[in-house]
C-alpha cells in the first residue's frame, strides 16, 4: 500500500514537472538541454505533443495510485475481552 502511494506521488510529481516543461518556455529549453546531455545527441529534442501526452498520463496514473484504495476502506475492529466475554470492539 505504501509502495503504491509512493510510486503514485513520484509519477504525479514527474507528470507535473513535464507539464511545466511543456507550458513554461524557459523550463522547456532547460528540459531540452537535459535530454540532449542525457542522450549524448545534440539533435535530440522534445516534441511538445509527446511531452504533453506523457506528462498528463503520468500525472493521472500517479493521482489514481494515490487515491486508489483509500476511499471506502473500513477500519478493522478488534474485540475487547473481559475474561472470556467480549465486552466491546475497538478500531485499529
Element pattern in H and E: HHHEE
Class derived from helix and strand content: alpha+beta
Helix content: 55-70%
Which stretches are low in confidence, meaning pLDDT under 50 for 5 or more residues running? none
Overall, the morphology is rod-shaped
Mean residue pLDDT: 80
SS field, number of helical segments: 3
In total, how many domains does the architecture comprise? 1
Distance between the termini: 17 Å
Strand order of the largest sheet: 1-2
What proportion strand? 5-15%
Instruction: Tell me about the largest β-sheet.
Output: 2 strands, antiparallel
**DSSP E strands, number:** 2
Whole-number radius of gyration? 23 Å
How would you portray this structure in words?
- This protein has 92 residues and is α+β, with helices and mostly antiparallel strands.
- The protein is 62% helix and 14% strand.
- It has three helices and two strands.
- Strands 1-2 form a two-stranded antiparallel sheet.
- The chain is rod-shaped, with a radius of gyration of 23 Å.
- 9% of the residues are buried.
- The mean pLDDT is 80.
Describe the secondary structure blueprint for this structure.
Layout: H1 2-23, H2 25-39, H3 48-67, E1 77-82, E2 85-91
Antiparallel strand pairs: 1-2
Features:
single chain; 92 residues; 2 strands; 62% helix; two-stranded antiparallel sheet; rod-shaped; alpha+beta
Give a quick rundown of the structure:
The protein is α+β, with helices and mostly antiparallel strands and 92 residues long.
Amino acid at each position: 500500500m505504501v509502495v503504491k502511494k509512493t510510486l503514485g506521488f513520484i509519477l504525479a510529481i514527474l507528470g507535473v514537472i513535464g507539464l511545466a516543461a511543456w507550458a513554461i518556455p524557459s523550463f522547456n529549453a532547460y528540459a531540452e538541454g537535459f535530454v540532449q546531455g542525457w542522450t549524448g545527441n545534440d539533435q535530440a529534442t522534445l516534441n511538445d505533443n509527446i511531452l504533453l501526452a506523457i506528462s498528463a498520463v503520468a500525472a493521472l496514473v500517479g493521482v489514481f495510485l494515490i487515491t486508489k484504495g483509500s476511499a471506502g476502506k473500513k477500519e478493522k475492529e478488534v474485540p475487547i475481552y473481559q475474561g472470556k466475554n467480549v465486552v466491546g470492539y475497538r478500531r485499529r
